[in-house]
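Q&A log
Question type: sequence-to-structure
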Amino acid sequence: MDTRTGYVTLIGPPNAGKSTLMNALIGDQLSIVTPKAQTTWQRVTGILTTDRAQMIFLDTPGLLEARDLLQRSMLSSARTALQEADVLLLVVDASKGKEPLEAGPILSVLEDRPPVPLLVAFNKMDLVAGDEDPDLAAWASQGLGGEPFFICALKNAGVEELQARLEEILPVGPFLYPPDDIASDPVRFFVAEMIRETVFQEYHQEIPYSVFCQIEEFREAEDPVYIQAHLFVERKSQKGILIGKGGASIRKLSTRSRKKIEEFLDRKVYLDLWVKILPDWRRKRADLKRLGFPVPEEGP
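Response status: OK
Response body:
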């Protein structure tokens, strides 16, 4: 039996549920998920292998009108992943209808898409009256040339049908990864993302969007595993909020993050968090490159 293998790039607006859908397809939490919009900043690679197919998912930052260099970097990352796709999976929030999609950057991004199959997953159908929306289906098939699916990733509704269709349309080819692999990114990446996810859960307003986590030391040979992580903020006031009175906030953040990491690694962990000020890092090309973001060369 011929096997099928290929890259499935997930694109869509912020907070449409791309990360929730990828996690549901893989059966594990790789991409961070929070109620706040725009929590995916770098693309995440997840792998699902079945008896006959290997789907390599590229979860990308939400498509939005970029306002700073970080958001331009995120948009560039999504466009690059789009060009790598063997199948495009557009994920949209069905509860918002199609008007926001027609006014946003999605159509302009899709104009540059490669000639590969396009599936359109209308997510959050639990918030919509009825099982399907003929207007949305027509917009997907006639307006975009895509195949519509109506799902609820959070409740795993319609996900099996979507997965089965993906298996059918991937190109024939050998598996690129061992069947047991569920990700290609290094462990350090996911550990940093778990800490950043906890920042989104514990803090409010602008703080989560001003914090980036980078793993400085990861000593697996020690017991417990020693992990030193740096949390970069843009201003002194943000550092104070992150640490909290008497260090109470940073201790709570460390405890919650450590529990997630220990479950992920299945080992005891000593988590050493440091908060550092990197002024206006979201707007500085050198700082973004230092933190591992792809930075567009054009513009300021």
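Response note: The chain has a mean pLDDT of 89.
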